[in-house]
């Protein structure tokens, strides 16, 4: 991907996976309308399952990016592609151990928390399994609590945690994954007071333009 080549980002403003990619693009200094084109896919209107979009991503999920190389899906794969394409502003620590910890933290969110509370899972609980709204929120909060407890513990025992970013002194893949997950939790009035370290990272990152401009309310 470079500035002279047309790139399309297929996303949805409230999708936490899309939110991650927008943060990464901003951290890399890439601007919507200049370096890439945004093509919104409405999850509420089921556009992700339309024949138009499943030709882009057969799995019917956002985000996806279309580049001169082809189409790439999965937010972490897209972010690592951006990181390798624009290496001057790294999104992973240089130290091998910190890099592995950072990936572990991000994958806990992307693989353990997010999939269980994803819109299609919540809709399936309602429509196919007959779960009512209260029961659905019990499910949602259960997996948030399990995941956030583990993330909080990871930061508490990390010698590199300085109450600003998750790992080191600049934003990494860990922060990129954490902030959208906290946004989703707050949308449903999840109690974040039990997770002071996660909250400190959230408060700090919310003051940074790359995170602010990627926020769903700014889309």
From TrEMBL:
Domain GST C-terminal: 95-219
Any Pfam family matching the protein: GST_N_3
Keyword Isomerase: yes
GO biological process: glutathione metabolic process; L-phenylalanine catabolic process
Keyword presence, Nucleus: no
Gene Ontology cellular-component terms listed: cytoplasm
InterPro entries per record: Glutathione-S-Trfase_C-like, Glutathione-S-Trfase_C_sf, Glutathione_S-Trfase, Glutathione_S-Trfase_N, GST_Zeta, GST_Zeta_C, GST_Zeta_N, Thioredoxin-like_sf
Gene Ontology molecular function, alphabetical: glutathione transferase activity; maleylacetoacetate isomerase activity
Keywords: Isomerase
Signal peptide: none
Domain of life: Bacteria
CDD domains on file: GST_C_Zeta, GST_N_Zeta
Sequence ranges assigned to domain GST N-terminal in this UniProt record: 5-90
PANTHER family: MALEYLACETOACETATE ISOMERASE
Family as reported in the entry's similarity comment: Belongs to the GST superfamily. Zeta family.
Protein name: Maleylacetoacetate isomerase
Species of provenance: Photobacterium indicum
Lineage of source species: Bacteria, Pseudomonadati, Pseudomonadota, Gammaproteobacteria, Vibrionales
Gene symbol of the encoding locus: maiA
């Amino acid at each position: 991907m470079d500035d002279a080549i047309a790139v399309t980002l297929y996303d949805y403003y409230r999708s936490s996976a899309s939110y991650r990619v927008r943060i990464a693009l901003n951290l890399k200094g890439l601007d919507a309308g200049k370096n890439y084109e945004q093509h919104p896919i409405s999850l509420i209107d089921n556009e992700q399952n339309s024949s138009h979009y499943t030709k882009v991503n057969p799995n019917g999920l956002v985000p996806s990016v279309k580049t001169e190389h082809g189409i790439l899906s999965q937010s972490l794969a897209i972010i690592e592609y951006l990181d390798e394409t624009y290496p001057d502003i790294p999104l992973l620590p240089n130290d091998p151990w910190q890099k592995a910890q950072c990936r572990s933290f991000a994958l806990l969110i992307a693989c353990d928390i997010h999939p269980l509370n994803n819109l299609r899972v919540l809709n399936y609980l309602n429509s196919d399994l007959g779960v009512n709204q209260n029961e659905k929120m019990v499910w949602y909060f259960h997996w948030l609590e399990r995941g956030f407890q583990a993330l909080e513990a990871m930061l508490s025992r990390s010698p590199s945690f300085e109450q600003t970013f998750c790992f080191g002194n600049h934003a990494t893949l860990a922060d990129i994954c954490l902030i959208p997950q906290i946004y989703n939790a707050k949308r449903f009035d999840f109690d974040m007071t039990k997770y002071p370290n996660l909250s400190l990272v959230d408060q700090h990152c919310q003051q940074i333009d790359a995170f602010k401009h990627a926020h769903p309310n700014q889309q």
